[in-house]
Amino acid sequence: MEGSSVLEIALSSETPHRDVDFINKLCDIYLISNLERKNDAATKTINFIDEQLVNVSKSLSASEDNLTDFRRRNQIIDVGSLSNELMSKATAYDNELNQVRLKETYLDYLSKYIKTNLDEGAIVAPTNLGLNEPMLMSLVEQINQLILKRGELTEKNMFYGKYTQDINNVKQAINEVVRNMQTSNHIQKKDLDRRLGEVQKEIQQLPEKELEMIGIERNYRMNDSYYTMFLQKRAEAQILKASNTPDNNILDRARTTTVTNSGDKSKTTITFLILGLLLPAAFVVLKELLNNTIHSNKDVERYCSFPLIGMVRHTSSESPYVVANNPRSSFTEMFRIIRTRIEFLARRKTDITIMVTSSESGDGKTYFSINLACIYSMASPRTLLIDMDIRKPSLYSRLGCQNTVGVSNYLANQCTLDEIITRPPDAGFDFITAGTVPPNAGELIRSDNLIAMIRELRKKYEFIIVDTSPIGIVADAYSFASLSDINLFVIRSGKTNKNFVKNLSAQLKADNISHFYSILNDVQVETNSYSQYYSKRYAYGSSKQYGYSYGYGYGYGYTASGRKKKKDESDTYFQYYQDDEKEI
Which residues form the AAA domain (predicted)? Predict the structure, then answer.
């Protein structure tokens, strides 16, 4: 459990009873392993003492036999007071020497163990052998704790290396303390040997029998004291080992909590996986089936029989003269592309008559016709826009003109050609309105007067753009299609019906109406894909160096020296489509 010292173990399988037994056994083994690590030092202490007891026991048994045999042979029960005093001194010195030898033995064991057997577990504590050296006791306790912590980790654990480094540091400190204690022991041992030698000289002055008795009894007492001390220390280590308990507890034994049908679970997973794949696919297919309007050039190529020669992006401007007001915009550039392709299809650059129609009302053909006239007026002032939609005229209101006389009046012989030609305010082209809405619009469009009118207008103008009625609703555009050089079929993105376009274009193709091409209007595109197309800079300075730079895409470029230019360096380049900065 996160944030606590409680570990939760859970298994999920087809054999819950086996998992319960496994988890319970795992916890038991973990506790046993923890207890064994804690008992490791006590166990090693007991083993060390047992090894020493084997040798001491042999020496004690031999000295006891010698003392008994000597008394029996010489019939001596006790020695005199002087002899007792000397023997007591000698025994005391012998005990001190035994402590020094024990300390030497432990220090040798500690030094050797640190060098060779450190990976085998904990070190025997000096207090277990009656060695009360505070510094050494603290260091041994530290290294035992570090060994215990490292033993619970694997070599891949992030703390394993830290504990190893700490162990090495403590080892160095222990080695230093051991060397100092060995030096101190050597001095103490020499002093005890000297004092014991003085007592032995006094003992040598005793009678022979008494002297021999003292030597035998002294050896016995020394071995007996040594043996008793080891027995006491082993008992203490065994008590410590028996009193140890694990550091961890089992709060709750393993049990089966829930039972799930694994077969149903697998089937449910597969079912939801399939649903997760099918539902998005079904949504996409359903959306495509319900979407019956054209959106992209791929839709035009699929549903329309007429070649696509251009696209016009969406604008939010209410002005009809978007091209004229924004000559350096991507919107205007789209019309330039259409103009260039029309010239290529007509195989000439002047004397071109273009009819603009659509499948139904609202496709944007009138808006397109005005801006197409604007782009041609930039090339030649001899450009004419005709509103041939005499059933439902609308061009005059957008251009701010009066619709008193127009095409219908001229075809009905009510006025001359010059009387219906006008120049809209702020426009660079001439304009002929539709005129009065006649009761017989179809017959007027099919009259010879229309042919004569177009013939006369071709003599005066290089470019004539004719906005006709929707060809999918009325037949007026059919009559005029043969009089024009290029017929443009406007399709509005997100509005024009796919099936309507498909059936209408197929019918026109079957009727052998030639020179028909499609235009995709009101396309939602990113301005940045057309703007900031090209930049150029000329720099002059005192060194008279000439440099230039170029770029494309989103306003980034590279100078002639290879240095990358950032977009905010507006003083070093200008946008090719500058008018895209406006809201059009």
Answer: 354-471
Mean pLDDT value across the chain = 79
HSE-up (13 A, CA, CB side) for residue 16:
9
3-state secondary structure of 567: coil
84-91 — which CB contacts under 8 Å span 24+ positions?
A: 86/199, 86/202, 86/203, 86/206, 86/214, 87/203, 87/214, 87/217, 87/218, 87/221, 89/199, 90/196, 90/199, 90/200, 90/203, 90/214, 90/218, 91/218, 91/221, 91/222, 91/225
SS3 307: coil
Q: Are 378 and 414 in contact (CB under 8 A)?
A: no
Domain boundaries, the chain: 16-243, 297-525, 528-584
Count the alpha carbons within 13 Å of 440 in the hemisphere toward its beta carbon. Answer: 7
CA–CA distance, 582 with 584 (Å, rounded to integer): 6
* Cα gap 486→452, rounded to integer Å: 19
Please give the sequence-ordered ranges of beta strands (E in DSSP) within 408-460, or none if there are none. Answer: 421-422, 430-432
Q: Give the dihedral of Cα atoms 211, 213, 215, 220; nearest 10 deg.
A: -170
C-alpha count within 13 angstroms, C-beta hemisphere, residue 447 = 17
Determine the longest span between alpha carbons in the chain, in angstroms: 175
State the Cα–Cα distance between residues 401 and 391, nearest whole angstrom. Answer: 18
Q: Into which CATH architecture does domain 297-525 fall?
A: 3-Layer(aba) Sandwich (3.40)
State how far the Cα of 196 lies from the Cα of 191, in Å rounded to an integer. 9
CB under 8 Å to 559, separation ≥6 — which residues? 547, 548, 549, 565
| Cα separation, 389 vs 476, whole angstroms | 8
pLDDT tens-digit map of 351-407? 999 999 998 888 899 999 999 999 999 999 999 999 999 888 989 999 989 989 999
CB neighbours of 111 closer than 8 A, spacing ≥ 6? 175, 178
Task: Report the DSSP pairing between strands 463-467 and 383-387.
Answer: parallel
489 vs 52, more confident: 489
Q: What is the DSSP string of 65-132?
A: HHHHHHHHHHT-----HHHHHHHHHHHHHHHHHHHHHHHHHHHHHHHHHHHH-GGG-PPPPGGGGT--
Structure tokens at 577: 């489509």
- Between 468 and 193, name the one with better pLDDT: 468
Taking alpha carbons only, the member of 252, 267, 462 closest to residue 373 is 462
- Residue 39 CA to residue 291 CA, distance in Å, equals 79
